[in-house]
Amino acid sequence: MDTPSELGDFLKSRRAALRPEDVGITPHPTRRRVTGLRREELSMLAGVSITHYTRLEQGRATSASDAVLESIARTLRLTDDETAHLKALARPTPASRPAPPRVEYASPSARQLLAAMTDVPALVLDRRTDVLAWNRLGHALLAGHLAPECPDTPAARPNLTRMLFLDEQYRDQYPNWNEEAQLAVASLRLVAGRHPDDRSLAGLVGHLAMNCSEFASRWARHPVRTCTSGVKQLHHPLVGAMELSFESLDIPGTSGRRLIAYTAEPDSPSEAALRLLGNVTASTSADSAAAVRP
Predict the structure, then answer these.
(1) Are 130 and 272 members of one domain?
(2) β-bridge pairing 131-134 and 229-236
(3) Which whole-number Å values give the CA distances from 228 to 47, 127, 263, 271, in the listed order?
């Protein structure tokens, strides 16, 4: 992922999304060829020289100050996440030889924690949304059609973003798929801006863009957003509709691993469905264990 190109594309996309009327400019109906802001208009409103802004958009300015970037962000009406993304793209870490991709694994303590969460679906992800580990209920909730041991084999490891776009069974569980897809792309964009040298992440983006036009079109719009908690609507093939809250908790370290857990409102139909899923999968696991005993 080319950071200067990413920076220019991001700024252009945000200029195009902001109409002149939004910032008090009355466009001349016969002279305007673009719907968004021109570079000259943006630089004037932000109090930045057109030369400096043009160099920034072209990826040729590497020393933009916080004041300049924040002024541009305010003019473009960027969110906090988008402003942080702008700064990451405008001031990337010094280029170095990319380290070979390293296979990630969940730590023994993280696996122990997941196993102890018997009534809560939970999983451990890396920053690319590869599933490093899940507990029995987490597997049953999100990917019961896959083998439980998939996360232990890097070549077969599930990736939640890839599944959302390319796995029909996983995709069909989300009645509001468009919203989930937009959030997934926006989250991945944020991570990509922070880790431009991550070859595995670049490979994931390339694979999705080549194999799914829906992903490619959303990626090209440069959405940026982080999401650490919220509510997900699911329609599970075994227990039906559920509304579950989720929390994403960072695991200390530099790898970007996090634990995600799902819960339902007490005494709600979703809690009953989650309990039923736990009972069904527990019975299935017991039957499978009995079948392999000598």
Answers:
(1) yes
(2) unpaired
(3) 34, 13, 14, 21
Question: For residues 121 and 140, what is the distance between their CA atoms, to the nearest angstrom?
Answer: 8
CA–CA dist 19, 15 (Å, integer): 8
On whether the CB atoms of residues 260 and 246 are closer than 8 A, the answer is yes
Domain count, the chain: 2
In angstroms, what CA-CA distances link 182 with 22, 102, 185, 216? 24, 28, 5, 11
In a domain, 270, yes or no: yes
Token code pair at residue 271? 């809690």
Q: What is the pLDDT of residues 156-166, one digit of tens each?
A: 999 999 999 99
Same domain, 118 and 164: yes
Phi-psi category of residue 203: left, alpha or beta, with phi > 0 → left and psi -120 to 50 → alpha:
alpha
Which residues, in sequence order, are CB contacts of 293 under 8 Å at separation 6+? none
Maximum separation of any 2 CA atoms in the chain, in Å = 84
Residue 192: which domain range? 108-292
Give the pLDDT confidence of 15-50 residue by residue, as tens digits: 988 888 777 777 666 566 667 888 998 999 999 999
The C-alpha atoms of residue 85 and residue 93 are separated, in whole angstroms, by: 13
The sign of the torsion formed by the CA atoms of 144, 145, 148, 151 equals: negative
- Classify the C-alpha dihedral 285-122-191-94 as positive or negative: negative
Provide the CATH number for the domain around residue 30. Answer: 1.10.260.40
Q: Enter the tokens of residue 37.
A: 């802001």
